[in-house]
Fold this sequence. Notes:
There is one protein chain. This protein is mainly alpha-helical. The chain has helices at about 40-65, 80-125, 130-145, and strands spanning about 5-10, 15-20. It has a two-stranded antiparallel sheet with strand order 1-2. Strand 1 (about 5-10) and strand 2 form a beta hairpin.
Amino acid sequence: MKTFRVEFNAAGHVTSCIELDRVAPDSVTIVYVQATSADAAKAKAEKIRQRIRQRARRAGYRAQGLCPDCGRQPTPGRIKCETCLLSNRISDRARQKSEKLRETRATREQQERLATLLEVRRALDEHGPAFIARWLDEAIEELTGRERSRAA
């Protein structure tokens, strides 16, 4: 069997088809990436190459009936070994905890924003737009420590 490098353009048409002169089909891996520099492209390509190798390794483990993550004997009745199951449980707990913290933080920020909007709305109803402009300028000056530019 021969190995070919086939390139497609954006429309999906073949732009080139080159036979690779290699001893084994697995001796070369071609990866196309978009990057801002050669170093960034190399880093991206290396990550892709590692991902390809990891998928192949895990597929081999699965074919042998071993844990797909590490290659150990799986726990009876399970796909993964006890070590990987425990590791996944710990990761899941940490992820859930960080998601809950993010949700709490977002809820707190929404409550603060709502309180501010209600305060502005109340002041607008009671005093009118000119008062709101002065009140906002004073609040900005208090928080930033500088006067707002009034050139506009």
